Amino acid sequence: MAVLNRMDWYDLARTTNWTPTYVTEDELFPPLMSGAFGLPQDAWEKYDEPYKQTYPEYVKVQRDKDAGAYSVKAALERSRIFENADPGWKSVMKAHYGAIARGEYAAASAEARMMRFSKAPGMRNMSTLGCLDEIRHGQMQLYFPHEHVSKDRQMDWAFKAYDTNEWGMIAARHFFDDIMMTRDAISVSIMLTFSFETGFTNMQFLGLAADAAEAGDHTFANLISSIQTDESRHAQIGGPALKVLIENGQKAEAQKRVDIAVWGAWKLFSVLTGPIMDYYTPLEHRKQSFKEFMEEWIVAQFERALTDMGLDLPWYWDIFLKDLSETHHGMHMGSYFWRPTVWWNPAAGVTPDERAWLEEKYPGWNDTWGQCWDVIIDNVVDGNMAMAYPETLPYVCNMCQLPILGTPGKGWNVKDYPLEYNGRLYHFGSEVDRWCFQQEPERYAGHLSIVDRFLAGMIQPMDLGGALNYMGLAPGECGDDAHNYAWAEVYRALRAEKKAS
Amino acid sequence: MALFPITSNFEGDFVLQLVAVDSENTMDEVAAAAAVHSVGRRVRARPGQIMRVRRQGSEDFLPRSMRVSESGLKPTETVEIIWEAPKH
Q1: Contact B16 A414 (CB under 8 A)
Q2: How far apart are CA A398 and CA A396, in angstroms?
Q3: Reduced to 3 states, what is the DSSP secondary structure of residue B39?
Q4: What's B3-84's CATH class?
Q5: Residue A447: which of A162, A175, A74 has the closest Cα?
Q6: Where are the alpha helices (DSSP H) in A441-481?
Q7: Cβ neighbours of residue A133 under 8 Å, at least 6 residues apart?
Q8: Please, which pLDDT band fits residue A287 given cuts at 50, 70 and 90?
Q9: pTM of the model
């Protein structure tokens, strides 16, 4: 029997809206879940997805993708890539799996909300496939690291991280809960797929796949590439929704959601991706600095995506562009100095050669972050390790849940952005974080940051041991220097040379 | 006498930190408590200089002998700890 071409029947087949008679439209699509923005069903029927795929096509393509990624894994299982990899690269994998794998499962639930509650039939189709994508991503990113769990306890955090109160995970959860778990279907499409996936993850996965191939880890490179091809499809769910909103006079609401989600995504990438690109990746494998990568792959493309859509650049775009040279250096120093509180081993990345690279890419680095690193390096070289660890908590932002930081040394500009709301004093890491909070204070006001929990007596005993226990970090899981401080030898040699001359 | 949390923004450091002081501590003692978490860890000591305390956004230092309980500081409020060269 002849099969019709997809485009001969697709539009008709997706016309699945009907006029409810036994219940009201609001009962069928509760506004709280559907986020209809006051628009009736027929307005949403104009939603036209740019990437059309049928279920049989999807299954065939996905089967091929899975077969490709799993067969590469099977073929390379005995290659000892993990055992022989640079410790900095292992840290990249651990950070990635812990922060992302279970979040993918959570994203399946967010896709399912669009699948059930969106008034746009095309969105329901696309997010059905998107939901299956996210289940696949969760399964793969748990299955792939599992072979390493017996070799390295930190790999167990691929599964474990999402359920813990580890500070980075509180930050990740706060962000994902905000943009995808507690929003209506249309807001999820704008905040998760358009803002986070189009703006950041799509390109992040491309960059990470290239880094993995460069590091010789072809299993990871294939896994990440396989995921990225799904991302580039389902990331397009939000675009047509924005179009419908703008055409129906809802631009301001749409813009606000984009602005909130893009800022949160940026902060998360500044702690997760920034240190990986500029500090963990061995110098010889670095292609671009984090700033160059962001400017080329994120900023330029996202600016185009926004203006093509008829949206404005977020009001804070200048602040964002300036932060590209600054924030992630602080996030790296923070996660390195507080390294017992993360589930991977941060690579310091501050040998003289690496510092020269940082100074070239970020002029002034030595006079700013370098000044703090000078003190840390001296302590490590002198064996004064007690001073190379913290004895208190960094103050974290009540919006992004990440440390409140700025540029140190000669460019010192660290600042708190406080706000008193209903008698409670909140602290924010930037004007933008505070602005996000102020858009809907009741949404965020009840949340306790890790510091708030400490002050409320929820972390006992009130010391590092108590904090590690609260964060779920067992012995053997706490982070320490990725290279066991071997990098300090070059500084010892330099000192000896100086003394001899 | 009561534990009093403040947020320390130490000159030259990169991050705000939680510091526990006592409501009866003087500003000099507050500065010293904050220094424990910055000086020698990520900020070099400045021999001969003293550390002064001011509210964020203020140009004026709080008097060195002023107690936390007299300062009007709120719990967790951010104070800046600034190096001051001796006056000759």
Answers
A1: yes
A2: 6
A3: strand
A4: alpha beta
A5: A175
A6: 441-444, 450-455, 464-471
A7: A62, A111, A230, A231, A233, A234
A8: confident
A9: 0.96
Residues on chain A touching B36 (C-beta within 8 angstroms): 391
Helix axes A251-275, A87-117, angle to 10 degrees: 160
Start-to-end CA span in chain A (Å): 88
State the nearest Cα–Cα gap between A325 and chain B, in angstroms. 14
Nearest to A31 by CA among A42, A41, A20: A41
Mean pLDDT estimate for chain A:
94
Name the packing angle between helices A488-500 and A352-361 (round to 10°). Answer: 100
Closest CA to A260 of A174, A167, A203, A178: A178
Asked if this assembly's ipTM is beyond 0.90, the reply is yes
Mean pLDDT of A54-61: 94
Q: Which residue of B6, B7, B15 to mutate against A (max A Cβ within 10 Å)?
A: B15
Q: How far is A409 from chain B (nearest CA, A)?
A: 4
Total residue length of chain B: 88
Report, as an integer, the average pLDDT of A407-432: 98
Quote helix, strand, coil % in chain A, to nearest 5: 65, 5, 30
Q: Strands of B50-55's sheet, edge to edge?
A: B17-22, B3-10, B78-84, B50-55
- Per-domain boundaries in chain B: 3-84
CA distance linking residue B79 with residue B16, whole number of Å: 10
pLDDT at B88 (0 to 100): 67
pLDDT tens profile B24-77? 999 999 999 999 999 999 999 999 999 999 999 999 999 999 999 999 999 999
Cis peptide before A461 (omega within 30 of 0): yes
Residues of B (55-74) whose Cβ lies below 8 Å from A: 56, 74
Per-residue pLDDT of A80-95, as tens digits, reads 888 888 898 999 999 9
